[in-house]
Design goal:
Elements (H helix, E strand, L loop, with lengths): L6 E3 L21 E3 L15 E2 L3 E4 L7 E4 L16 H12 L3 E12 L8 E9 L7 H14 L6 E5 L8 E3 L11 H11 L5 E10 L9 E7 L9 H13 L6 E6 L2 E2 L23 E4 L7 E2 L2 E6 L6 E7 L13 H13 L6 H4 L2 E3 L3 H16 L4 H11 L6 H27 L39 E8 L3 E4 L8 E4 L2 E4 L26 E2 L9 E6 L3 E7 L4 E3 L14 E8 L14 E4 L3 E10 L5 E5 H12 L3 E4 L10
Parallel strand pairs: 7-8, 11-12, 23-29
Antiparallel strand pairs: 1-2, 1-12, 3-4, 4-8, 5-6, 6-7, 9-10, 10-11, 10-26, 13-29, 14-15, 14-18, 16-17, 16-31, 17-22, 18-19, 19-22, 20-21, 24-25, 24-28, 25-27, 26-27, 27-30, 28-29, 29-30
Helix pairs in contact: 1-2, 3-4, 7-9
């Protein structure tokens, strides 16, 4: 686990080890820096990386690394064929230096936490390391020289033991642990004593390699932004060690790692359930900018606001603010300026800018992935055997029952795929043709139909069936005071309300991906009053990870603002509630933003707005904070989870 940390200090009581686990320091803690048990974070003069379980250079992707195969058309795919001269030379070099090799391959490597980075061309050698004295550095340099001699200078060399990239698990700290009642005080001291320049989050959790989460050590976990490899985190680590020691919390470790707090709206293409192309909007299904393949996020569900004490309730959809923001780089300067203004003040109810921020379900990004896959299936040439059967049948001649059965099944499958493709295209196709080119918000990249006319002139009856409405109001990226005044803490606001067409309104059914519990089909979604107890089991329905279950942490996570580091007004840290997966490793992924989070009795607890790639925390705005801020921005008298309406569809 420590092999992926920028800086690490174990609990004093920690006894787990391996061949390179260092001897404890005088205080009984074991220390690592940048994956090395010698605790050195100095950069080597030659720039090469030397860690306990990973060695190579001249440039390596940051750990933990993902392997990306070379593209099918790459000129390098056959270079290391088993019978090639280079493959033989690589193997002999590895044998000469007694590297216990399991496999080697030319590929690309990229840090798992930063999927948008450029992949690093790499000769990856997967090996087993038995001793720190193994000649991995010498061997990697010899392999790099071999690659250069064969005209492969673009490739770096990485020799890696699988222990360099362990699977890790996170879970909440139990209230019985000594740090639990002290965490607020300890967190305040950490925020006061360390340099926060590159810190994203500070939290306390169980973190380790055991899938039995209750056995992992309690850890103060810092997620940092990417900084120079020469930056030292030792002072930060030792400051936290000192604070923990002052409270005799020797059982608590420190883990500092780079990562990101993702508020991004998607990751990779996700395939949609067959029920995605229905008129009623579905909780937890993908939501995207109208007629744009820019992004995908999640439609959370329905709330209702009451403008005045005696007025009727207005039914509105809910998602995250960042889920309804277009690619700012593609906008006109005027549109971009208006969006930037909304960042700091939000979007009031029925504001003109909100009417131009339009969404659809399912997202065109995800629908396009379905369209492309269906098109590939239809374009695929049937095998020779099927073609021969088809020729015989086309001539009106008889074939064996087995051949006839195969023919019928394949043709039925093709017909079903073709019908599904047509349905998908029609669902996203505008009802009326557009005559003018679009230079306003949401310029379409739809492969099915031409770009739409001027956004402000479009009528609702010209939209496609997928149209899910426009933004009624939104939070912007603001800091708000907790609804629990006694806390006097700031939180992040990140929500958007959607004014959806009547034809797409539905009830708050949580059965999009199947039953959650016995209650999921018996009772409507209701509001949870206040904050659930720590370790309460929670659920969410999201675009990327669909249905997941997690546990609520009773210890808040501190989020350090990043947008004012180059000057401007000082912004305070915010304190957010976190949920950790109870099954698997993550409660959410990019693209799940906007999902409502609820307990096993179908009581809504809050709105998921962000996640942490490293600590694997998912962050939620609890319902009282969400509702109070909606009232502040819209001027509404009251807000509630929408009541079920008889006659509306449940999906």
């Amino acid at each position: 686990m420590a092999t992926t940390a920028l800086s690490f200090a174990s609990p004093v009581t920690h006894t787990a080890g391996g061949p390179f686990w260092p001897r404890p320091s005088r205080d009984g803690r074991c220390r690592f820096s940048r994956g090395s048990s010698d605790d050195s974070d100095e950069v080597r003069p030659d720039g090469w990386t030397v860690q306990d379980f990973r060695v190579g250079g001249p440039k390596l992707a940051q750990s933990p690394g993902d392997t990306i195969p070379l593209s099918p058309g790459s000129q390098y795919r056959s270079v290391l064929d088993a019978r090639s001269h280079l493959s033989d030379a690589v193997l002999k070099t590895l044998q000469y230096y007694h590297i216990h090799t399991r496999a080697f391959v030319l590929c690309h490597r990229r840090c798992a936490y930063f999927p948008d980075e450029d992949p690093v061309p790499t000769l990856l050698v997967v090996a087993k390391r038995h001793s720190a004295k193994d000649q991995w550095l010498i061997a990697s340099k010899a392999l790099h020289g071999l690659l250069n001699a064969h005209g492969l200078s673009i490739f770096n060399v990485e020799i890696c033991d699988k222990r360099a990239n362990p699977e890790t698990y996170s879970s909440p700290v139990p209230s019985s642990d000594p740090i639990y009642p002290l965490w607020d005080k300890i967190l305040a001291q950490i925020l006061d004593k360390i340099d926060l320049s590159h810190i994203l989050t500070i939290e306390c959790l169980r973190f380790g390699e055991s899938s039995d989460r209750d056995t992992n050590p309690i850890t103060v976990f810092l997620t940092t932004a990417q900084v120079s490899t020469s930056y030292s985190w030792k002072n930060t680590r030792e400051a936290i060690v000192s604070i923990l020691s002052s409270y005799s919390l020797d059982h608590v470790g420190i883990f500092i790692a780079h990562g990101r707090v993702y508020r991004s709206t998607d990751s990779f293409d996700q395939f949609l359930p067959e029920s995605a192309w229905q008129a009623p909007l579905q909780l937890g299904l993908s939501l995207g900018l109208y007629q744009s393949t820019y992004s995908s996020s999640t439609f959370g569900g329905w709330i209702e606001i009451q403008e005045h004490e005696d007025s009727e309730w207005i039914r509105l959809g809910v998602t995250c603010f960042h889920s309804v923001i277009p690619n700012l780089g593609t906008l006109s300067s005027k549109d971009r300026s208006e969006i930037y203004d909304a960042f700091s003040v939000g979007i009031p109810a029925n504001d003109p800018i909100g009417r131009r921020l339009r969404v659809e379900q399912p997202s065109l990004k995800d629908a396009t992935a379905v369209i492309n896959e269906a098109s590939r299936m239809l374009d695929r040439t049937p095998d020779q055997s099927f073609q021969e059967i088809k020729e015989i049948i086309d001539k009106g001649e008889d074939v064996s029952p087995r051949s006839r059965q195969r023919y019928d099944r394949v043709t039925a499958k093709y017909a079903a795929v073709k019908a599904s493709l047509l349905t998908t295209k029609e669902f996203h196709e505008p009802q009326l043709p557009c005559s003018e080119p679009c230079n306003n918000l949401f310029s379409s990249s739809l492969p099915i139909n031409p770009r739409c006319g001027t956004i402000s002139n479009l009528r609702e009856d010209s939209f496609s069936q997928s149209y899910a409405g426009h933004v009624y109001a939104a939070s912007g990226y603001r800091q708000i005071l907790s609804s629990n005044i006694s806390e006097k803490r700031m939180r992040q606001a990140n929500w958007a309300l959607l004014d959806a067409p009547k034809a797409r309104q539905s009830n708050n059914s949580v059965r999009t991906y199947g039953d959650i519990s016995i209650s999921s089909d018996l009772f409507p979604l209701e509001s949870f009053k206040g904050l659930p107890n720590e370790n309460t089991s929670l659920f969410k329905l999201g675009r990327s990870t669909r249905r997941t279950m997690g546990k609520l942490s009773g210890l808040v996570s501190a989020h350090i603002p990043t947008h004012n580091r180059d000057g401007g007004d000082s912004v305070l840290p915010t304190y957010e509630y976190a949920v950790f997966a109870d099954v698997g490793t993550r409660f959410s992924d990019p693209g799940d933003s906007g999902a409502l989070v609820f307990d096993g009795d179908i009581n809504c607890v809050g709105l998921l707005f962000a996640g942490n790639s490293t600590s694997k925390a998912s962050y939620i705005t609890i319902l009282p904070d969400l509702f109070e801020d909606i009232k502040a921005v819209t001027g509404a008298f009251d807000v509630r989870i929408a009541r079920d309406i008889p006659g509306l569809e449940n999906y």
